Fold this protein.
Amino acid sequence: MKQSYPPPEGVGGGQTHDSHTLSHSDLLLLLRATGEEKTLLFERSAAVKEKHVGNRVYFRGLIEFSNICQKNCLYCGIRKENETVRRYNLTDDEILNAARFAADNKYASLVLQSGEVETGNFTRRVANLLTRIHRETGNQLRITLSCGEQDKETYKMWHDCGAHRYLLRIESSNPDLYVKLHPSDGMHLYRRRRECLDALQETGYQVGTGVMIGLPFQTLEDLTNDLLFMQQFNIDMVGMGPYLEHSDTPLYAYRDQLLPLEERFQLTLKMIACLRILMPDINIAATTALQSIDKLGREKAIKIGANVIMPNITPGKYRDDYLLYQNKPCTDENAEDCKTCLEARIALAENEIAYGEWGDSKHFGERDKGRGTKD
Ligand code: SAM
Ligand code: SF4
């Protein structure tokens, strides 16, 4: 559908004012934009990015340290009931070596990601790893955790051990859609997800969330509400990517209902652009899933608003076993290949890698001033 002019407030490359207000109907129009209107949206979001966070990209070395998971999200290739997955758990030494690689190469930040396990052993192991990584890399690294839903005491313990950021996607802010994406077994509750996000914010983390884009049953209305949810929740960071199907998951049965890949890709870029305009100073990741659809996917996201990239530094031999979706890129590379490839790609996107800088969310800095607990 063609969008009517003038474009919504806050959009349009030539505008001089600096409004970041986009209403529900504005956002809906923007998510439908094509042609010239889409170009205008991207020009505006690129300008907002340059003004508020600069044309700089922060690295977060991603360690997918275990694919063992107690959950059964209907979309995810490493869900517990997928028996075709070869399960792995990196040793502490493998994790520490990867962390040293990140420190030596001035990545400045790490993401420790895994399947979801809620046990005392897991809690203690992560706490111990955090302590050792900080000790053995001379406190050079900021650490983000992405280990799913946990109780508040666990989040607090990990924060005390030096995790400053946490990524927990809401997946969809529509509770009815959330139910369709998860089993009804009492272990996958929308309410719990929201409580965990609240607990993370209260604990003092820089909180990141996100959604998958192009899911079966998902509407543009849902995505519009997702953007407004992120603004209302006052997130500090986001990781949004296209939903990509995996044949060993229950959601695969609905593949005929999916948008073509290129449309999912374009919709993801539009979501990133809208969010950059709505929340100019948050950190926005250019996710790997974008690159599975388009080889230059992450660079395109960087150009129009994203400012974080997560080079995979998981030891190469495990990468084939962390397949959330099929055709995941770079599973045959090692950490060094990833770095070289990204340097060239980011230069192509006319951005600069901020080596050696933590790149904390500026939004968190502002939010935290109010709390009076800046670390
Ligand atoms: N287990 C933790 C959790 O769920 O938060 C962290 C790891 S989980 C694999 C990270 C993210 O992968 C999820 O939040 C989900 O959005 C994404 N994901 C899972 N399956 C996907 C798929 N088929 N396509 C795209 N993203 C997917
Ligand atoms: Fe487990 Fe996370 Fe995958 Fe859900 S999305 S099945 S919690 S790894």
In short: The chain has a mean pLDDT of 92. Residues 75-76, 113, 115-116, 146, 148, 168-169, 171, 212, 241, 243-244, 246, 289, 324-325 surround S-adenosylmethionine (ligand 1) (CB under 6 Å). Residues 112 and 145 are 5 Å apart (CA to CA).
